Records
---
Amino acid sequence: MTFGPSLAAGSGPRLVRRATGGNVATAGKQGPSAVPERRPRIIVAVDGSDASVAALRVARAVAEPLGAPVEAWACWDVPAGYGVYLAVGIEGFKYAAEQVLGQAIQDAFGQAPPFVHSRVVRGKPGPVLLDASRTASLLIVGRRGHGSFVLGSVSSTLVSHAHCPVLVVHAAETGAAKEVPRTGAAALP
C-alpha cells in the first residue's frame, strides 16, 4: 500500500507489514546515508456534512497505523457581491467555518485525537484543496453529490486533478455516519 508523493515506491516511506502483525511506515532508504523522509500528510475536507464526518473517521482509521497526522480543513470565502460584506465585516464567515469544523470533529470523535489538527483556510474548497494536494500524501473528502452515482463538484475536481491520491467517503445510507473500526486498513469499508 503506498500513498502520494511522500510515499512513492522506492523513494520515500512505505507501509510494510511487521512479521509480528501490524503495519509500520519505513523510509525507502536504509543505513547511515538514508535521509529521513517526512511522515505522510493526510488532509480531510470538512464541510459539516455527514459524509465529511465519515471522512474524518476514515482518516483516523488510515492515519493511526501509519503514525500520520491528520489535518481537518474547513474552507471559507466571502460570497459574490462581497462589497456589502466588507462594509459590515467578514469575520462572521471565518467564525462560521470554525464552528462547523469544531462540530464535525466533535461528531466524529467526541474529543479530537492528538494527531488530528484543525485548520480554517480562506478560499473556495476546490482550488484550496487542489493546491494542498501538492504536499499531501492523501486527500479524504466526502461525496456530497445528488443521487447515488454523482460526485459533488469539489470531489469531482479533486479526483480528476489532485496531485496525490483522493479517497471519497460516502455517508451511511440513513444519513448518519457510522463509526469506522480502527483495527487496521483491512477494516475500511
Note: The chain has five helices and seven strands.
---
Amino acid sequence: MNLPTLAPAPSPLNTPATTPHDSTRDAHGKEPVRHVFSFYVYEAPVRLWHWATAILVMGLAITGYRIATPAPSALGDTSQLFTMGNMRELHFIFAWLLAIGALWRAYWAIVGSHHARQIYFIPFWSGAWWKEVLSVVRWYLFIDRKTHKWVGHNPLARASMVFMFTLGTTFMIVSGFALYGEQLGLNSWVSHAFGWAIPIAGSSMTLRSWHHWGMYVLLLFTVIHIYAAVRDDVMGRVSTISSMISGWRTFRDYED
C-alpha cells in the first residue's frame, strides 16, 4: 500500500498507535483483502470540536437566515411572542460558542498532534504538494481510478479546509462580532476589538451583506465536505466518517 508521504503516520508500523492485521475477506465476506492498517489520527478534543462546530454552523445558518428574511407577520400577540428577539439571542449564543470553540481549536493545534495543525496552513511552496493536489482532483473527477492514501487530510481537502472553512469561519466571526459590537455601542469592548471591520467594508450594511453571503460559502463547504467524506469511505477504501467518531483511520488494501 502506498502510504502517504506528506502527512506521515504518527508512529511507525507495528507500534501501539498502529494496528496492522491481515484478513482474507471484507465485511461482506466477498472481496479479498490483503491488509488493514489503522492509525490514530483525530484526538478526542478535535472530534468533539468537529461535531460541536457542525451543530453550531447549522444553528447559525438557520437563525441567520431567519434574521435576514424575517416572517412578514407573527400569529398572536406580538408583544408577548418576541419571535425575532429570541431568534437574534439564539444567533448570538451560537456565535459566542463558535468563537470560543475556534479559540480552543487553535490552542489544540499548538499542543495536539501534527494532524491537528493541518487545517491552518498549506505547504504552498512545495511543487510536489501541488502535484498531489492535481492528482486528488483527477481522482475526484473520475479521471484516475486510484490516488495515494493519506493518514490525515489529503492535499485537496487540506486546501479547502484552510481557504473555505478556517478562513471562512474567521471572517464570519470577525464580521459578526463587528456588527454585534455596533449594536452594543461604540464604547463596548466588542466594538473596540472588531469594529475596524466596518470601515474596511465601507459600511455596516455592506459588511452585513458579506456576512450573509459568507453563510452560503460555509454551507457550500459543508455539502462538499460531506460528499468527499462519503466518497472516500465508499471508493477510497479509507474510513473517513467513522474516524471522526473513533479517532482511528483505517486503510483497506484490496486486491484487484
Note: Confidence is low (pLDDT under 50) at residues 1-33.
---
Amino acid sequence: MRTKHTAIFVLLVVLSNRAYTQATFPVDTAKLAERAEETTTISLDKNMLQFASKFLSSSNEDREARRIIANLDGIYVRTFEFKKSNAYSASELEAFRRPFGGSEWSHIVSVRGKEADGDTDIYVRLVDGQIRGMFILAAEPEELTFVHIVGPIKPEDLDQLSGNFGIPKHINKRQPRREDQRREDQQ
C-alpha cells in the first residue's frame, strides 16, 4: 500500500510539472535544501488533490480522506533528510515557528522530548472562528518535515490524511525515530 501511495505522488508531481513559488509556502526552506542529503517536495493544489483522490480505494478510510480533501485548496509538504544529526539549529527552528506567532495562527500542539529525538508543532489558521489552514513542523535529529494544508480542516482529520498525499503517518502523534520507522517499513 505504501508503494502505491508513493508511486501516485511521484506521478502527481511529474504530471503537475508546475513552478511552485516560495511565496506560496509559508516558510523559506531554501537554505535547508542546500544542506540536505535528500529533499522531497510535494505540491498538490486543489486540482491535483481532486485528481489524486481518484486513486484512493473505496475503503471507509479512503472515502473519509476523499471527503476531507474535497474541501481543501492544497497540501504542500517539504521533507529534508540530513546525513548527520544537528544539521539545523534550534534558532532555525524558532525562525520557522515565528511566522505563526501572530493573531491569525494558533499553536495547538507542541511536543518536546527530553531526549533530542524530535519536536512536533501544529498550528491552525483561524478565519471567522473556523480552521482554514494548518501548518505542521516535525523535527527529528536527521530530518525536518513541514506540512502546509490550505483550506478547512479539523485536527482530527489528520489521522485520515496521514500516510497519504505526502503527509507522514501519525503526524499528530509522537513520531517514531528514523531507525524505528525503517524497521517498521521493512516488515
Note: The helical segments are 2-16, 30-35, 46-53, 60-70, 90-97, 158-161, 178-186.
---
Amino acid sequence: MVKILVLGAGFAGCSAAFLLSKRYDVTVLECCGFPGGGCRTYFYGGHPYTLGPRIFFTKDDEVIKFLTDFLDIRQFYNKTWSYVAEDKDFYFYPIYKSDILRMPDHESILSQLDERKGRTPRVSDFETYWLDAIGPNLYSKFVNNYSKKMWGIESNKNLTVNFDWVNKGNPIREDDIRLYGDMFQGYPVNWDGYNSFFDKSLKDCKVVFDCKVEFYDVEEKTLRTKRGDFKADIVINTISVDSLFNHTYGPLKYSGRKFLKIVLPSKQVLPDDIVWIHYAGDEPFTRITEFKKITNHQSKDTLLGLELPTFDGQHYPVRSVVEEYRFKKYQGIFPQNFYSIGRLGSFSYKGIPDVIRDAIDLAKKII
C-alpha cells in the first residue's frame, strides 16, 4: 500500500489525512501533544477559547459539506468595530458609508472619495492600493498603523496585495455591515469547538505526537525528526518550509502573536452584535475578542482575548515581494511527490475554509 506522511495536524493536515486514509497508509507527525494547531479549543475559567477568533465562513458548498459532515455549526452573522483613537470613536469595519458622516473630518473624506470615483486602484503594493481606494484620511484611521503592527513592518509598501483578504472593488460598504457578508458563517455547537473534528479525522491514521520535524533529507528522501526517521512514498507538508529545508534560502518572515486571556465580572462587555474590536492606532495590541459571542458559552462572567503582535511564532506569513521570492526558491527544491498546503505550507494568509479546500484539491489529485 502507498505510504503517505502528513506533517502537521492542524486543519490542513487533518483534512488531508482524513481524505486519504481510506485508500492509503497515512501517518501524521505532529510537534504538539494534540491535534488542532491554532484552531484547537482551550479552556480558561470554564470558558472555551481559541488563539484568536476562528469563525468558519465560506461560499464553497463542497467545503461546507465536508465540515458539517463532522460538526453541527451554529450559524450567526459577525459584526466588528475598529477603534480610532484620533476620533475618540468606534466604527464598523469593513468601513461603512454611513459611519463616515460621524467622522470629524467627513467633508475631507467625502471629497477624497469623490476624487477617486471611477478609478481602478493600483495594485503595486498594499499602501498604494488603499490610498487609491479610500484616500489618505481613511487610510490613516483604519489601515496604516494597524497593518504595520499586524505584520511587524515599517512600511505598507513592503506588502503585496492579496485580494483574497482585501475588499477588492468594495472597500466601503453601503448596506451590509456583516463582516463576511452573505457567506455561510458560524461556529461549532460543541463546547469544545473544532476539537472533535481533529480527533475524528485522524481515527484511521497513525499519529505520532510530540514529533518535531527537524528537516527533510532530500537525497535520502527521509524526514529527520526528534522521534526518529520516517520515509514515505508521498509527503504532504503543512509546516513552514524554511525549517524543513534547513533554512537553505534563509528564514521566511512571519508575524507572531501573544494571546492574553482576561475574565471580567460581567455577563457581557461588547454590544450584542459586536464580536471583536480592531485597534487601529499605536496601541500595542491589534484586537480584543469577546469569545462567548462566538462559542455561545453561557456564564455569569465573560472572557476577553487580547492579541499582541510579536516577532516570534509563525501565525501570519508576511507577504512581501522579498518573502514571496524566497518562498518560490524553496518551491524550486521540493522533491517529487512532495506537496505543501495550508497557511504555513503555502506561505499564504488562509482561513479554515481555504486550507480545507487545499486538502480537498490535493486529495483529488493524488487519488
Note: DSSP finds eleven helices and 20 strands in the chain.
